[in-house]
Design brief:
Bound molecules: zinc ion
Number of domains: 1
Oligomer: single chain
Structural class: alpha/beta
CATH topology: TIM Barrel
Strand order of the largest sheet: 1-2-5-6-7
Shape: globular
CATH architecture: Alpha-Beta Barrel
Length: about 375
């Protein structure tokens, strides 16, 4: 590791748009655990020692709601997962802290604390009540990923072939307007292309894709963003935070992972399992070990460089999806200790220290501040 890369990872605030720690803890049956210490090394992608080594200062905690929950279940789960993040912070007060906006993140950084702002992944938790946006904002949610694997009451998902609304529903239109008003960022990761363009038309604030990569490297994979969409997102002032997952950054990996997903889905149906059942994880891991679908860190750096060449430096961030990708991360990017590996490679590609600072934090801070400006809660 070069001295300069190490130094930059320490000196800069590093933001990550999407880390699935809450759901990882949920799967370990820690949902109602009051004390959850993270100051020792764990087997997960995120813990405090790894974050300190990697210079990570501001990982957005994903309040992830699986698509098979109904509105009531989704609301309760979201509420409980937010409590869980509160408990994680309380249990590690020396090292972790809440953050409502960029100024809190700055202050926590000065105090040597890692900020854990929250984003909610799947608007199903809003149900049909627009006031829930205000409620979840008051609980600390700073972005909403409109949907996840399926169409919901707000919009269509890239993973769902039904195309229920052909973009946004009427309620979805209201949701975007209300989010703009409240100051909650709109996350366009997971939505269909049509949804993206409708959101872009309606939103008066810059958008964020918290964990998506350029589709150029994964043709036909709608979960990633086309060049045209990245150009339009940039025009709106938004940011694409690059997903590190092997299947997001490399075509071969993408193909193998979609085969794996299909097999897992068939297995889930055959055995009649819930989507968060442990047996599915084991089945999937066995397939991964068998099929070796891994991308490399160079692939991730290529996607960053592609966005840079397409729209310049002001619209790129990190959105690893750590703790949400299972065993599918590229070599050299297996957990939150490894951001310096990317920085080292960007330096080799002649990215300046200012460029790297923009990727690490300034671009997302710009979008976050713009969303919070004149907000009414
Ligand atoms: Zn996701």
């Amino acid at each position: 590791m070069s001295y300069q890369a190490e130094k930059l990872s320490r000196e800069n605030i590093i933001i990550d748009g999407h880390i699935d720690l809450p759901f990882r803890l949920y799967k370990k049956n820690l949902l109602f655990e009051k004390k959850i210490e993270l100051d020792k090394e764990t087997s997960g992608n995120f813990d405090i020692p790894k974050a300190v080594r990697g210079g990570l200062n501001c990982p957005f905690m994903s309040i992830y709601i699986p698509s098979d929950k109904n509105f009531d279940e989704a609301f309760v789960l979201a509420d409980n997962l937010i409590d869980l993040v509160d408990n994680v912070i309380k249990s590690n007060q020396k090292n972790l802290a809440h953050a409502s906006g960029p100024s809190d993140v700055d202050q926590n950084f000065i105090e040597n604390k890692i900020s854990l702002p929250m984003g909610m992944e799947n608007g199903s938790a809003l149900g049909k009540d627009i006031n829930n946006i205000k409620y979840f904002f008051s609980r600390g949610i700073r972005y909403l990923t409109l949907t996840h694997a399926k169409d919901n009451q707000i919009c269509d998902s890239s993973y769902d072939s039904k195309r229920t609304w052909n973009g946004l529903s009427d309620f979805g239109v209201e949701v975007i307007k209300e989010m703009n008003k409240i100051g909650m960022m709109v996350d366009v990761s997971h939505v269909s292309d049509k949804t993206f363009y409708e959101v872009l038309k309606i939103s008066k604030k810059p958008l964020v894709a918290t964990h998506s990569s350029p589709r150029k490297f994964t043709p036909g994979f709608e979960r990633n963003m086309s060049d045209e969409m990245i150009i339009d997102l940039a025009e709106n002032g938004g940011v694409i935070m690059i997903n590190f997952g092997s299947s997001f950054v490399n075509q071969r990996s993408n193909k193998i992972f979609s085969e794996i997903e299909k097999k897992v889905k068939d297995y889930k149906t055959k055995k009649n399992l819930k989507s968060d059942h442990k047996e599915l994880d084991k089945y999937k891991n066995d397939l991964i070990n068998e099929m070796n679908p891994f991308a490399s860190i160079e692939d991730v750096v290529e996607t960053i460089d592609h966005v840079y060449k397409l729209v310049g430096i002001d619209h790129i961030g990190f959105g690893s999806d750590f703790d949400g990708l299972g065993n599918s991360l590229p070599e050299g990017l297996k957990d939150v200790s490894m951001y310096p590996n990317i920085i080292e490679r960007l330096l080799k590609k002649n990215y300046s220290e200012e460029d790297i600072k923009k990727i690490c934090c300034e671009n997302l801070f710009r979008v976050w501040n713009a969303n919070l400006q004149n907000h009414q809660t």
